[in-house]
Amino acid sequence: MDFRGTYEFTLDNRGRVSIPARYRHEFADKVILAMGQDGCVEVYTEDGFNQMSNHVAAEPPTTPDGRQARREFYAQSFDTELDRQGRILVPPRFREKAALNGAVVIAGRKECLEIWHPARLERLLRGGSSSTEQAPEG
After folding, report:
1. pLDDT for 138
2. Is the pLDDT at 135 greater than 50, yes or no?
3. Of 7, 92, 81, which is closest to residue 44 (Cα–Cα)?
4. Which pLDDT tens digit goes with each residue over 28-59?
5. What CA–CA distances, in Å, run from 7 to 1, 25, 75, 120?
6. pLDDT confidence of residue 129
7. 90-108 in b/e burial notation, b at 16+ Cβ within 10 A?
8. Please, what is the end-to-end C-alpha distance for the chain in angstroms?
9. CATH number of this structure's domain 6-125, picked from the four choices 3.30.70.270, 2.40.150.20, 3.40.1550.20, 3.40.50.300
């Protein structure tokens, strides 16, 4: 499955956001969230997460780089599931790191969906910094 397109949603006050209807069936069994390196939350199917983990595990765990890559990927991932309305819960730590509150953009990135603060994604698409340390505009 290739995830594509851009969708506007609202994160509710409990930290839930809808998955685009066209992709909900892909996440029916399991949803895995990971903190993206560019300041977004990545939304994976179980197969997609396993494929990404193969890339992370390419460096052996016997090396410092291999251990660090695993820590960054696995320690910053979270299992969740769709509720009856097709929403997922984004953990507070992820919401804080990705500056998610209110309006969000869900964008396809082939292997996963990404949940973005709208200004942060716009800045990145314009060629600006995607740093998570930079406060979102607006």
Report:
1. 47
2. no
3. 81
4. 999 999 999 999 999 999 999 999 999 998 88
5. 17, 17, 28, 15
6. 64
7. beeebbebbbbeeebbbbb
8. 34
9. 3.40.1550.20
- Helices in 1-138 by DSSP H: which ranges? 46-56, 64-74, 92-97, 118-125
Can you tell me which residue has the tokens 């309305």?
Answer: 85
Q: What is the 3 state secondary structure string of 14-34?
A: CCEEECCHHHHHHHCCCEEEE
CA-closest candidate to residue 6, choices 137, 109, 127:
109
CB 86 within 8 A of CB 21: yes
pTM value is 0.89
